[in-house]
Specification:
- Two copies of one chain form a homodimer.
- Chain A is α/β, with parallel strands linked by helices.
- The first copy, chain A, folds into three domains: 43 residues, no CATH class; 129 residues, Rossmann fold (3-Layer(aba) Sandwich), CATH 3.40.50; 130 residues, Response regulator (Rossmann fold).
- Chain A contains twelve helices and twelve strands.
- In chain A, the strands form three sheets. Chain A has a six-stranded parallel β-sheet, covered by helices on one side.
- In chain A, helix 8 runs parallel beside helix 9 and helix 10 crosses helix 11.
- Chain A starts with 5 loop residues before the first helix and ends in an 8-residue tail after the last strand.
- The structure holds a DNA duplex (16 and 16 nucleotides).
DNA sequence: ATGAAAGCGCTAACAG
DNA sequence: CTGTTAGCGCTTTCAT
């Protein structure tokens, strides 16, 4: 049995395909035709062909969400934020994983140019090249970015205010008496690493604290990395607190300190960044900074909707959302 | 500037749209036409319209992967397994989240019926209703399932052998001298809960161990749940080991025991299931069972490819892959 | 190697 | 409220 079309339905219901089409799209038809149509549709097990409809309407009602690695979504709540607003406007979300895309950084371009989606949200926390940003501006459909465009990119983007987050952490440590504060840095190819480190350095200066290059350890976001970083930091006896630029490394650091018999926070204070789920389960529960993930997703989606509607006043702006300090028990009041 | 079509390209290159189409699809054209075509395509910034092509070719070269919740992917490596084989056959993957789908359990049906994808992989560890399974069999395109179809469903499905996994855990505990073994159960609406519990009960009987209803605590997969379950279990003084049906709850249990001053594994042995990343980072590192996630994804994708090719010998079978015991330090040799 | 023409399944004027 | 008609942008015979 071949798939049935709108014409088959029309014939069986003794009417024309225009009427079928109208009925399917919510227009009024005479009661008898409606009944005949319903019967025909059921009998033929008819389903409209999305590709034909998309061709003529020149839209799809689906938004593409491109993520770095579908199997490694750190910031899941961003996606929930996106879905919640996009769905409320009648759009569906289709997710695509960049890792799978042999074409590299530009692999999603086809999606945008070939009419597979009506709009695109690119979610990535890797640094974006200016070259790629330029390409984005040329695309045929509206696009917004989540994860910072380091530059004044001219593309609508939203991110957490990384610099502010670290700054609050350092201020907090300062308030409770810490003066010698070390830092564990994230990998260079992440935009967040740049801004968080900047937050650390600037806040130190602002507070008039001594600034030592050797107290900054470059690492890789992982527990293993934080573990190792801490082993280097423990050589410096005057350090009383460590700011880790994410929770994972903070936990690795915590673990290393414990293994060596140091008690956190008695002997050493440690803070992280992200407020991941585990951060409240480690011992001691980690003081950190909560990323506004859901709002980030919402803001991005809202911006995209505005573009889709062709609103003129939606500028290509860079939106930074403030994170929130979460005080738990990994710091000692000196 | 309107989007250019294949006709614009043809005109500019002084040829016909058939020739453009052929060229785009890899057929040979005269050298001069090729050059003219390349020039025209670049000049017009031409991109083929995927919807038009899909309409006439009646396929899309994309496979839909439907997951329960895109923002909560426990079993990420399954997706990597899927992508690796699907990509090698020239298919792209598009992911859809069922949570977002107000239409509930049947929300993905449109994808299958309206020609948006060529095939579907449904990834879910929730119990599936027979009703839904029946619907699946009627769909217009090939479908495979990941996560068990409890019944003899008549649909190609792959899952880990949950029963065997728990059985190996219990056997291991038995070998190192444990006789009084409690169990923390997962929530009822997950297929895995049923099979794992069955593995616990059957292995106990098989080994001639005493079986007590009160040593089985129903919980919810979460750390908090495991935490609470352990608080109930600690009332039974003769228990020497606890099998948790997943790692999360095992870690919650571990934490509770520690908080009460019990030392694991000296005072109590605990094992989990999954081999999640954290399980090797908790103290003590958790003995558990490793799910063959990547292979599960590969098997499912391979099955789908076979169906897509119309291979007759690909039966609608239920494939169960064996998990692997991972011994770490959360158990004491009695 | 190329062009003409038909058609994929649907929507949207237009005329009634 | 309904039918007729003309496309949407592309692929694919069938000729040449």
């Amino acid at each position: 049995m071949d798939k049935s079309t709108i014409i088959d339905v029309a014939k069986l219901a003794n009417t024309s395909k225009s009427t079928v089409s109208r009925y399917l799209n919510g227009y009024k038809v005479k009661k008898e035709t409606k009944e005949a149509l319903d019967r025909a549709i059921r009998e033929l097990n008819y389903h409209p062909n999305a590709n034909a409809r998309r061709l003529v309407k020149n839209n799809t009602q689906v938004i593409g969400i491109v993520v770095d690695d579908i199997a490694n979504i750190f910031y899941a709540d961003i996606l929930r934020g996106i879905e919640s607003v996009l769905n409320s406007y009648g759009y569906r979300c289709a997710y695509y994983s960049r890792t799978s895309n042999y074409q590299g950084e530009f692999g999603f371009m086809d999606l945008a140019n070939e009419g597979e989606v009506d709009g695109l949200i690119l979610v990535s926390f890797l640094k974006r090249s200016q070259e790629m940003l330029d390409e984005v501006k040329k695309l045929a459909i509206p696009i917004v970015l989540i994860g910072d465009a380091d530059y004044d990119s001219g593309v609508f983007s939203v991110d957490v205010n990384n610099e502010l987050g670290i700054s609050e952490l350092v201020h907090y440590l300062y308030r409770i008496g810490h003066r010698n504060i070390a830092y564990i840095n994230g990998p260079e190819h992440f935009s967040a690493s740049y801004w968080r480190k900047k937050g650390y350095e600037n806040t130190l200066k602002e507070l008039g604290l001594s600034y030592k290059e050797s107290w900054i350890i470059d690492s890789d976001w992982t527990k293993a990395g934080g573990h190792k970083a801490m082993s280097e930091l423990l050589a410096f006896k005057d350090i009383t607190a460590v700011v880790s630029s994410n929770d994972e490394m903070a936990i690795g650091a915590l673990l290393y300190a414990s293994e060596l018999g140091f008690h956190v926070p008695r002997d050493l204070s440690i803070v992280g960044f992200d407020d991941t789920e585990v951060s409240k389960w480690v011992y001691p529960p980690l003081t950190t900074v909560k990323q506004p993930l859901h709002p980030m997703g919402e803001k991005a989606a809202t911006g995209l909707i505005a573009k889709l509607k062709g609103e003129q006043d939606i500028q290509e702006q860079r939106i930074l959302i403030d994170p929130k300090l979460v005080v738990r028990q990994s710091c000692r009041n000196l």
